[in-house]
Amino acid sequence: VLAFLNIGLAGFVLSSLGVRFLFPALSGEGRAFWILKKSPVSLRTILWVKFFFYLLPMICLGLFLVIATNYLLGMGLFMGMLSTVTMIFLTVGITSLSIGMGVVHADFKLADPSRAFSGFGGLLTMIYGGLAVAAVLLLEAFPVYRVLAAPFLGRTLGLGDYLLCGICFAGALGVAVFLIVYPMKLGLKTISELDI
After folding, report:
1. CA distance 113 to 95
2. Torsion of CA 86, 179, 119, 104, to 10 degrees
3. Could you tell me which of 126, 144, 155, 171 has the fewest CB atoms within 10 Å of its CB?
């Protein structure tokens, strides 16, 4: 149970870090955004560069949090693999959400662009990130319970159990993929319409 809740804790930590440091990535350009608009590099390319620039440290931090705590808690292979894969998907999604929503709610007129996260857009991004983490955890809770409780209850998993577990994991994957694709797509659409 602790290792499973650890995924949620790490997800919420990454979500708050994403809002604090990734969300203001574009607003941080400030009034110099016009230079980016006039440069020969497309704004879409600039947005992808920002995404991949922040993705690596976020994944490293997320994996460190999950793998280190799984090791300290002495978790088995199933929970170790599940938490690692879940954290990779959630981290890419949180990065996409933070960058994409940062574009949608970009404000280049702020006196201190690093404070962009404290507005309505930052709050909305934090709520969306928390809801996504909670949805993935809820969808994974049933399969994790089934798999881990089966030996203690003296039963084996049947075809129906595997089918329900597969449906729940597919739902969690669907939430993560939506979190990865939609905010970045929205950000890529919005960035070309931005003006100072």
Report:
1. 19
2. 150
3. 155
Q: Name the helix (H) or strand (E) containing 165.
A: helix 159-191
On whether the CB atoms of residues 110 and 43 are closer than 8 A, the answer is: no
pTM of the model: 0.90
pLDDT bracket for residue 146 (50, 70, 90): confident
DSSP conformation letters of 19-84: IIIIGGGTGGGGGGHHHHHHSSS-HHHHHHHHHHHHHHHHHHHHHHHHHHHHHHHT--HHHHHHHH
Which residue's entry shows tokens 């993935």?
136
**How many other C-beta atoms can be found within 10 angstroms of the C-beta atom of residue 37?**
15
